[in-house]
Write a structure and sequence with these properties.
This protein is of the alpha/beta class and 453 residues long. It contains 20 helices and 7 strands.
């Protein structure tokens, strides 16, 4: 059953109540002793005026969809979701900042707007239904602070609650029409990408993807003569859009590049994303060899392939945090370890971000390229995504720079390898809750970045 079908069914209150019974029967069939307190919480969550549709969709997802959560962990994962959705619902209901009409939360019009929003999400066009009284920045901050605390707790971490809930969220809230896939990557110049507007497929994700790829390209070119290895880890590859940007930027033999010292690893845990990623990634190495002079894009690489001049492009499935920590780091003075994340770390609690930075700081030269949400305050978050389980599950990145500085990284807001038009476009996205930049650690990589400026 598709995600769209799940959400559409759950628009019906009777279907949501029926799902509670189906969920209970599923647990019993799987041999799990049903806890009455848990079931009471589930019933209350399904009745929630804002998040009831999302809660019921999660029940259906964990009961029927392909995921990696263990059955005995599902009730605890759902309890974690309910803790976050109930608190967010109470924030909106109490309206302590008095931003909404009195009695709005209890109105039929409000319930109709929530239903219309989820209906629009089901067809992949959430901005077709904007809430007339959206959440405010302060409520978005409350969501990320609470999510960072709850999802980063030892109890939630021990069962991988954050990762499994993120998988369910993307399966029930996002689609190929919401986010850009590798195959749909725009075949234009960086200046053309800077001019992208609107909400369709979130163009701000493409802007930061391309900016990170151009910085990586500058580093690869500057380091070519030294022949150190450059290992690039795409943390949270999704359907391959970040990988597509890097493929387009790095080029191949026809551009005069020697990429034999470069490896790229696409890392993804979400079973919903892996099919599209695995469709693109195996041919990416070959596609690198066909780089043509001209437009910045990946369409040529998708349709043509020859033998590659790159050391390795591969996929690593599973928990990104654990996988990175298990990878041995290069120790040669001119080796470079690169981690790139593009709108992924708002799904990662601070305790896990710290683990990644502690691991990365041990490399002889470290480079972290990032673009992300800061505090659930983007236009689309306030207008509609914070009203789905997408909002309460976001941990944000309010402490990101502090964590990086604590591990000895130097943080740059931008780099001269990024065209001025694209720099300006990304800077303007700060109004849309974007936090982006380049963090590095090590004298060699610092010198390369300075020389490539």
């Amino acid at each position: 059953m598709s995600a769209e079908t799940i959400v559409t069914e759950m628009l019906n209150p009777d279907a949501r109540q029926e799902e509670v019974g189906q969920y209970q029967n599923w647990l019993r069939t799987e041999g799990y002793a049903v806890n009455n307190a848990h079931l009471r919480a589930v019933v209350g969550g399904v009745k929630d005026s804002i998040y009831g549709i999302a809660v019921a969709s999660n029940l259906r997802f964990f009961r029927t969809a392909h995921h990696s959560a263990r059955t005995e962990h599902v009730p605890h994962i759902i309890d974690t979701l309910l803790t976050l959705t109930h608190a967010s619902e109470m924030d909106y209901r109490t309206d302590k900042y008095e931003r909404r009409p009195k009695g709005w939360y209890r109105s039929g019009e409000f319930r109709e707007e929530v239903a219309a929003l989820h209906d629009a999400i089901a067809i992949g066009k959430p901005d077709a239904s904007i809430m007339s009284h959206p959440m405010i920045i302060t409520e978005g901050i409350q969501q990320v602070e609470r999510a960072d605390s709850v999802l980063g707790s030892p109890a939630a971490a021990s069962i991988g609650a954050q990762r499994h809930l993120a998988d369910a969220n993307y399966a029930t809230t996002f689609s190929n029409r919401t986010m850009l896939s590798a195959a749909a990557f725009p075949d234009t110049t960086p200046k053309g990408i800077a001019k992208m507007t609107g909400n369709e497929q979130m163009p701000w994700l493409t802007k930061t993807n391309v900016a990170s790829a151009l910085v990586a390209k500058a580093v690869v070119q500057a380091a070519r003569k030294d022949k150190g290895t450059i290992d690039i880890f795409d943390a949270g590859s999704g359907t391959g859009a970040t990988l597509a940007a890097f493929v387009a930027a790095l080029g191949g033999r026809s551009a005069g590049n020697d990429l034999s010292h470069v490896s790229i690893t696409a890392m993804e845990s979400n079973p919903q994303f892996l099919p599209l990623l695995t469709h693109f990634a195996p041919t990416a190495a070959a596609q690198l060899a066909t780089r043509k002079h001209g437009p910045f894009g990946v369409q040529d690489y998708i349709t043509h392939s020859t033998s590659a001049d790159v050391r390795n492009i591969g996929i690593m499935e599973g928990d990104v945090v654990g996988a990175l920590q298990a990878i041995p780091l290069a120790e040669h003075p001119k080796d470079i370890t690169v981690v790139v994340e593009n709108y992924v770390f708002h799904r990662v609690p601070s305790v896990d971000k710290l683990k990644i930075f502690q691991w990365l700081s041990q490399a002889s030269n470290s480079l972290f390229l990032f673009g992300d949400l800061a505090r659930n305050g983007s236009y689309i978050n306030r207008a509609y995504f914070n009203f789905t389980n997408n909002g309460p599950l976001n941990t944000g990145n309010r402490g990101l720079l502090h964590l990086l500085n604590g591990q000895g990284f130097t943080v740059l807001p931008t780099h001269e390898s990024i065209p001025r038009e694209l720099q300006a476009a990304i800077a303007a996205e700060q109004e849309n809750d974007c936090i982006a930049g380049i963090a590095f650690r090590g004298s060699y990589i610092g010198g390369l970045l300075a020389g490539a400026a």
